[in-house]
Predict the structure.
Amino acid sequence: MRYFTKDHEWIDVDGTSATVGITDYAQGQLGDVVFVELPEAGRAVVAGKEAAVVESVKAASEVYAPVSGTVTEANGALADTPDLVNTAPEGEGWFFRLRLSNPAELDGLMDEGAYKAFVASL
Amino acid sequence: MSMMNQGRPSSPTGEVPVHLAPTFTGNRALMLEEPLIFESGSPQVTGVDLEPVPAHRSRLSGLERKGAIGLPGLSEGETVRHFTRLSRQNYGIDLGLFPLGSCTMKHNPRLNEKMARLPGFGDVHPLQPQDTVQGALELIHRLAGWLMKLTNMPAVAMTPKAGAHGELCGMLAIRAAHEARGDARKVVLVPESAHGTNPATAAFCGYAVEDIPADARGRVDTDALLARLGPDVAAVMITNPNTCGLFDPDLKRISDAVHAAGAYVYCDGANFNAIVGRVRPGDLGVDAMHINLHKTFSTPHGGGGPGSGPVVFSQALAPFAPLPFVVEEPAAPGIRGSNGVRYHLIEEETASAEDHGQSFGRLAAFHGQMGMFVRALSYIMSHGADGLRQVAEDAVLNANYILRSLEDVMTAPFAKSGPCMHEALFDDGFLKDTGLTTLDVAKALIDEGFHPMTMYFPLVVHGAMLIEPTETESRQRLDQFIGAMRTLATAARSGETARFATAPHFAPRSRLDETRAARQPILTWQPPIDDRLAAE
């Protein structure tokens, strides 16, 4: 099941583990991504707080953790090919995986339909 | 008599051939295509004639350099030409309008330069005995006095080297003040309309940063800010006038509430040019504010720096201000030319009758940017109180002239909320459905002979274009700029987009691949492979 935040992160949840990235809309707004700073495995992240930084030609932006948890893996491919965020934001360009510490937080997120409506309203 | 008999035509004849084929050399008339300095010389050439090294025994224990050092080899004449040619490809305030928002790129008066070159100011060394630099110390003291007077603040630190360094100075003083009373507050609130360096400074000082949203008028959401105050908040960092070019009339109310909550107000003074001589930040409850001498007080920057960012302090923070600073003391009787006073640089916490044990320490090795102090004082004294007031008034007038002359062809998100201050903010709404971006407009503006405005900042509006003309541009120059912007905006909206997509076309280099430059930067020059083989 895939959820979305109003800050344009997506999270794919499978039981208590999940994969996080930024949406196609977000990459379009950022422009060409030149660098991604990812959290190390083992780091605890808090819902709504900074978990990663994405740097484009225009600006550096924070990526927030959609839900709280512990990072299990960062996408090493982004170190050499940050453009994956532009070409495959909701696939190969994922940022990190985490183990959820409070799955109830997912209730506050949007599903795909709600997110599409949200983007259309911007 | 001798006469010119070569039959040289003295007026142009015939049609100018309309072709854009490159010249044989790649040069364009007397604008020369310049290679890297490493490519233009040869390691066998040197501009200095050094004596051969006499026989000696090395004491470097085998650490001495064996290979070539890799410096470029040019004569003095070729070196001068290289840098002069490069300088002709540069653009600066002495060439034309430089409307970079929030940078206050105003004219640098030549009187300042003359004063800064006086040997008593220009040829002094920071380690000279204080008795030999009394004039320089007096100048620092006098400038400090003016900065305190203009801001109505009781203390000032002169040492910070530029704006962000000034922020660091202010936030370190705030942290020292909290620590002195054993209060470990963790959070700094930064409105979205603040300068981008503010959150970085707070984070560098060990604070967690929390954003406060902007309201629909482009000002800080005062209610949201007041609601967030509490025992964990150490400070609020606010930029006034803010990065939308708007004055925040709520600042006094915010300051009172921040103080009631036991926190301090840091004001980013980068935009002081809009209010100098008209508003005193001390009256608004500010506890610390940096002043960019290289913006408001006309000292050179943008490649010609260095910057200088003195920080004024409230009574509450004054004891925590950094060392060193200059004080005026009675001189010992009988010292010639002293007029009974002596200027003393306090460098140690206990070096004077007054104990400065609460100072957070040193922020810089020496006294600050002496050359900039001379220029800033020259600027202040040559303008006077009335002149400085007019600086702010004309800066605001010029910005509003631009805002009102362009708002019908561009989109100005906060134009409805009243006059702007020293800078006019536009967004990319007028480019909707044209396929063009803010970047394209900025690049096309280069072709028209203007330095681009600040782009994509502030982040509170989409595709921001922030234009700050400053008070030193004439009506004629502003009209030229407005004419160029109107033509570009109209062309963009009428579908004439080809000129934008690959602009600039007439600059020494056309559109560069910024993404590739950021992803795969080439930071070191490598000699051609043939040369490397020859050297082995």
